[in-house]
Amino acid sequence: MTAKTMTATAPEKKIGPKIKTALPGPNAKRVLAGDQRLISPSYTRSYPLVAKSGRGIVVTDVDGNEFYDFSAGIAVTSTGHCHPEVVAAIQKQAAELIHMSGTDFYYESMVQLADRLSKIAPMPGPHKIYYGNSGAEAIECALKLARYHTKRPNIIAFFGAFHGRTMGALSLTASKPQQRRRFSPLMPGVTHVPYPDLYRGRPDAAQDSDAFALSCARFIEEKLFKTTLPPEEVAAIFVEPVQGEGGYVVAPTIFMQELRRICDRHGILLVLDEVQSGAGRTGKWWAVEHTGVEPDMICIAKGIASGMPLGITLTRSEIMDWVPGSHASTFGGNPICIAAALATLDVIEKEHLLDHSAEVGTHMLKRMSTWPTKLKLVGDVRGRGLRARSDRRARLRARRSVPRLRPQHHPPLPPAGSHKRGVGCCDGCPRRVHPASRKVIRACPVLPKPRAKPRGEAEGAGTVTLTLRPRPRSENGIHCSLRRNDIKFYFDFVLHLNRPTRDPYGSDAKAALLQRCGAAVVAIL
Ligand SMILES: Cc1ncc(COP(=O)(O)O)c(C=O)c1O
Question: 22, 309, 397, 431: which one has the fewest Cβ atoms less than 10 Å from its Cβ?
Answer without folding.
Answer: 22
